[in-house]
Amino acid sequence: MCENQRSMGEIRTGPRERLVFLDLARGLAIVFMVLQHAVLLFATGQGEGLVLGKIVLLLGGAPAAPVFLFIMGIFLGRPDRKIGRGVRRGLKLIALGYLLNLLRSTLPSLFTGPEIASATVPASPLASFWAVDILQMAGLSFVLLTLLRRYLPFRWVWAILAAAVAFVSPLLWHWGGPSGVYALWGNRDDVFFPLFPWVAYPLAGMVYNPYALAQEGQSTVTHRSAAVGALFFAVGAATFFLPREGQLDLGQYFQDGPGAQVATVGFVLVWLSFCRLLARRRAGSAGLRLLSFWSRNVTAVYFVQWILYGWAVLVIGRNRYGSPMAMGVATGVLLAAHAVVKASVARAGRRPDPPDGCAGGGSTGSREVPSAGNFCCSTGQKSV
Questions:
Q1: Coil, strand or helix: which one is 321?
Q2: Structural domain boundaries of the chain?
Q3: What is the pLDDT at residue 14?
Q4: pTM to 2 decimals?
C-alpha cells in the first residue's frame, strides 16, 4: 500500500488481506505468464497437442494479463492520484516497452534470422522493434486514464466507457485506419495488446476501486463480487452460442469481442474473490511472501524474463520440445529473473519502490522514492 506508514501498519495488524490479495493475484499472474511464454516459444505446436500445454495456455489467459490490467485500474481509480506523476509513469512504461523489444527481439535477430530469434513474431529486426506488447498498452492506458480520472472523476462514466470500448473495438479492427495509429486497435500482426479493447480492463478496475480497497465489510464484498462476477461470466459466455454475423463476431485473445470481454471481467471478479479468501488463510506464508515480492516488482520480473527468453531461443531453438521440457525452461527463467531482481533490489540498498510513485512513508516525513515503473501499487508486504 502506498499511503503512509500508518496504513501499512494497519495491514500487518488487522485487515492484512485487504490488499495482500491483490499481490497474490498479481504474483500468480506473473507465474502463469512466464509458463505460457515458455510453451509458446519452446513447445512443439506451441503446446496445443498436450493436456499440460493446453492447461498452461489457459492459465496464461484470463488469470494473467487481464488481472494485471484490472488491478492497475484499481489503483488508477484512487482519488489521490497526481496527474503529472501518472503521465510520466505512462511515458516511462511505453519507453520501457520499446527498450524490451530491442533487447529481446531486435538484437537477437541480428545474430541469426528473425524467423528463429524473434521472441514475438518472425519479423525483420526493425519491424520487431515496433511490436506493441503489454508495456506499451499499459503506458498508453496510464496516460489516458490518469487524465480521465482528473477531468471525469465519475465511476458511472468509466463503466460506460468500458462497455463502449468492448462494443466499438471490433468496428475499429475492421476499419483499420492509418498505419500511425496501429497501437490503438491493432490491425497488424505485431500488435499483441492494442489499446482497444484492452483498456476496458483497467477501466473496469477503476470502477471496482472502492470495493477492492474497502476497509469494512470484507466478507460481504467478497461474496457480492463473486456473485456479480459469476453473472458477468455467464452472460458473456452465453454470447458464444449466438450466431456470429456482422462486424462484432471477430474475437480472439488479443482482440476479444464484447462477449469474451464481459466473461473475462466476470472471471477476474471471481478470481480476485478467491484470492482474497486464500490470502486470509495463507497470511504470512513463505509462498505468499514470494508471490508478493514478484507482484511488487512485476515490471522488473516481466522485463528480465523476456530478455532471458529472447536470447535462450538462440541457444536451444524454437518450438522443438515437449511441454514438460518447456516447463523446465520456464522454471529456470523464473528463478533467474527472481535472482536478478532480488540482487537489483539489494544493490539499491532499500525496499522495492512503490510501483505508482507513491511516498514510502508520508506520515513520517520520509523522502519520496521515485518508482521503477510497475503496473500498479504495492501492498506493503515484506521482502523475501
A1: strand
A2: 5-364
A3: 40
A4: 0.84
